[in-house]
Amino acid sequence: MKSPEATRRVVETLAVQHPNADTELHYRNAFELLVATILSAQSTDARVNMVTPALFKKYPDARALARARQSALEKQIVSTGFFRQKSKALLGMSQALIAEHGGQVPADMEALTRLPGVGRKTANVVLGHALGVPGLPVDRHVLRVSNRIGIAEGDDPEKVEAQLCAALPEEMWTLASDVQILHGRRICRPKPLCSDCSIRDDCDFYEHVVMKDAARTPTAKKTRAKSRDARRVRTPGR
Ligand code: SF4
Fold it and tell me: What is the pLDDT of residues 121-138, one digit of tens each?
């Protein structure tokens, strides 16, 4: 795995390629971001952003959402998928906020992950973006990008979070997640667009997979054969 210095350099370079990287979910406060993040599971941020304006108007806070009828809630969020599970999570989460936190979103990982429907990734999104507490959410993009580059190892989000957090100062944690999510969506997709990538020189996957594959292509073989021939012509008698 790469050194903390290299990890930091990678994040800084990605931040230049993706300026103003931030969550793409629309929200005005921690409660709205918590709701939007729960809805974003197995959905897209764009889809969630279509649903939340009307949802937040009808249920502006935990008190209003805790009193919602499940059937009405399901209708409003149906287009985000898994609407039954998500409506139960939203009701349970807002009822727990009322019962245990006076309706406020707690700025604490343990308290957040005790809420129904809230896992570590969701908690980190809310902590890092809406509550000013350093957090490094690891989603499938962060897993793919960090493993390819070689700044993390493994497919366990919690372990990858710990590796990245150990290598970076706290003030870079949320940025590190935001830039890798954008990079994974735009450039380092499952089929990566390496020619558009600013961190090729630091990327293990580029060095060990992309370049080696390129060397095996028919064009590369022809180029190598041509240069061998040219060398023979330049050195007659060999
Ligand atoms: S060089 Fe390619 S594989 Fe490496 S991070 Fe960039 S896009 Fe991803």
Answer: 999 999 999 999 999 999
Distance 176 CA to ligand 1 centre (A): 16
Q: Could you report the per-residue pLDDT of 148-162, keeping only the tens digit for each? A: 999 999 999 999 999
Ligand 1 touching residue 142 (CB < 6 A): no
What per-residue confidence (pLDDT) applies to 237? 45
Residue nearest to atom 8 of ligand 1 (CA): 188
Q: Measure Cα distances from 123 to 104, 117, 167, 193, 230 in Å.
A: 14, 10, 21, 31, 61
Flag residues of the chain having pLDDT under 70.
Answer: 219-238
What is the rounded distance in angstroms from the CA atom of residue 104 to the CA atom of residue 35?
13
Of 45, 61, 108, 139, the active-site residue reads 139
Q: Would residue 121 show up in a list of annotated catalytic residues for this protein?
A: yes
Q: Is the CB of 203 under 6 A from ligand 1?
A: yes
pLDDT score for 221 = 64
Distance 6 CA to ligand 1 centre (A): 15
pLDDT at 217: 79
**Hey, what domains does the chain have and what are their CATH numbers?**
1-199 (1.10.340.30), 203-234 (no CATH)
Any atom of ligand 1 within 6 Å of the Cβ of 200: yes
